[in-house]
Amino acid sequence: MFAVAEQSVSNSNILLISALCAIFLAIIHIFSGKLRFLRTIPRSRWLSFGSGVSVAYVFVHILPELSQAQETIQNIDFRIAFLEHHVYLVALVGLSVFYALERLAKRSRQNNQKAGQRDITSSGVFWIHIASFGVYNALIGYLLLHREEPGIESLLLFFFAMALHFVVNDNGLREHHKEIYDRIGRWLLAAAIIVGWVIGSGTEIHRAAVAVLFAFLAGGVVLNVLKEELPEERESRFWAFALGAVSYAALLLTF
Hints:
This protein has 255 residues and is mainly alpha-helical. Helices cover 78% and strands 0% of the residues.
């Protein structure tokens, strides 16, 4: 009886802490635009640091978990041949989807510039981008409650990596969409996080499905980080990226 009561208290604590994490992640989307020092060339060292942290989380924490989760997926009764590498295919899909979205946004801006208009995406591309990142944010909100590795410690590590990742994403989205992102986009993306958390608080899916969601997230994180760091015009700070990656990898390896 005491064990059940203790488990109930633990679950309540995780629910409360995850709710606070979801709220804080939403606040990041709403207010990160106020951090003017992030919009500099050369690229702000803090954005590069945050990118390094996000990538370290993927390679040190998510990918090893996906390797373990692969055994779970392979033991599902309805598996088919390609499921042997299913989670990695999903990670590839996640990377490809966000690569396509980035190319779509850049091409839209280029077309507008050639037509003598502002360096901004079209309305249609804006809504495609926001809808896609809305699903992405809802997924992260959901995974605040359902991760491969349960517990408060795992939750906080995930939250910190995603918080910095959201700052990086928010900066990139604002660059593509300008004022309309501040008027509409950031509010919708903030709401998507809360929606994802609410869905997660009321539902629980199979562990194999969680692994698939994490795989898609891993691919998305890697692409969204690299698209911000690699372009030459960004003049990114490699030392800040490396510091973020090494320091967070070291932290993850100690837990």
